[in-house]
Amino acid sequence: xAMTMTGEVQLAAPRESVWAKLNDPEVLKxxxxxxxxxxxxxxxxxxxxxxxxxxxxxARFKGKVTLSDLDPPNGYKISGEGEGGVAGFAKGGAVVxxxxxxxxxxxxxxxxxxxxxxxxxxxxRLINGTAKKLADEFFANFAxxxxx
Length: 148
Hints:
Elements lengths: L1 E10 L3 H8 L2 H7 L3 E6 L5 E9 L2 E15 L3 E9 L5 E13 L2 E13 L7 H23 L2
Antiparallel strand pairs: 1-7, 2-3, 3-4, 4-5, 5-6, 6-7
Helix pairs in contact: 2-3
């Protein structure tokens, strides 16, 4: 099952500051809902463990995250894939762009993801609703982190 999601959030911080936080594993770990571990790997990527609940299915996903198309301080592409045991798998990516706007930074994102296994049987509406909720929660947390 595939899904796409786009959005934008206005942050009251300079673009360089937002860029730095987007590349800080500690900040990302604190902002990602359910994230238990997030650390850099030797190849410049990140290893992640996150506990997620989607409807009746709860799983701990272990996976890797890669940053590519780095264009400081304008944006990057973040890609990842995770295995959640019997719950299934998730993989996808997001293009994140930063632009100066109204004395702060406008962050826009375009997410494409695929899920399979038990999760995919839950139905598009529940999956999309949960994905939107997780994205909103991440960006609310990230806005707080960026604004101190």
